[in-house]
Amino acid sequence: MSDYDACPAEYAAYVARREAGVPEGDPLGILPRLLDLLGDVAGRRMLDAGCGEGYLARVLAGRGARVTGIDLSPRLIELARERGAGGTADGGIDYQVADLSRPLPEGTGPFDGIASYLVLNDVDDYRGFAATLAAALVSGGRLVLALNNPYGAVIRGHVADYFASGTVSPYRGLWAAGIRAHHRHRTLEEYLDAFLDSGLRLAKLADLEWLSEPHGPDSLLPDGHRLPRFMLLAFDRP
Predict the structure, then answer these.
(1) 116: Cβ–Cβ under 8 A, 6 or more apart, which residues?
(2) Residue 170, pLDDT score
(3) Structural domain of residue 14, as residue ranges?
């Protein structure tokens, strides 16, 4: 069961604040780099892996992609279908409920490209997740994942010991918004091994500064110190 099934309305409101303002807005600073690594998606079959209520799926559809969005949460998929693409219920995005840690339902895929926006840290069976996405990607296709930087888990208090793989802790910011979701910690080595062992080739690792990180007394780092809040991993299938 998805953590987000218990609070779909609160999560949808949280994402709506992210979308507010400019088109394809993202105060976290993730989306522009993610889209750049995906390249031109127009006319391509794209999977939004862990689509939630459709934030990234709508962006991809707006760029001309043929999008399938898959998520574990039936309630978030229901909200995604209500919105469709561009805020309309007939946007043409194919939304499905499925566990991406297991093989895709028959007839789903393959995909020219796969994107996943802050989902990997929510997944219990990250190796199954990696294997499913790798199997769903065509030869020459690209997978791009945005995740919380594993090294930042220590600074942000998710773990005291970086090597304590499998530690589960609350996302404090989400809990403050009424969203009882949990962070699953894995080391960067474990994540890389999972995707490389699935037959993918690492194309890019990018550290991303969190654009809205507070400074001064509310910062988690001393003044003058910087640490990447997020990370992008891009893989190609040979």
Answers:
(1) 48, 49, 50, 133, 143, 144, 145, 146
(2) 82
(3) 3-236
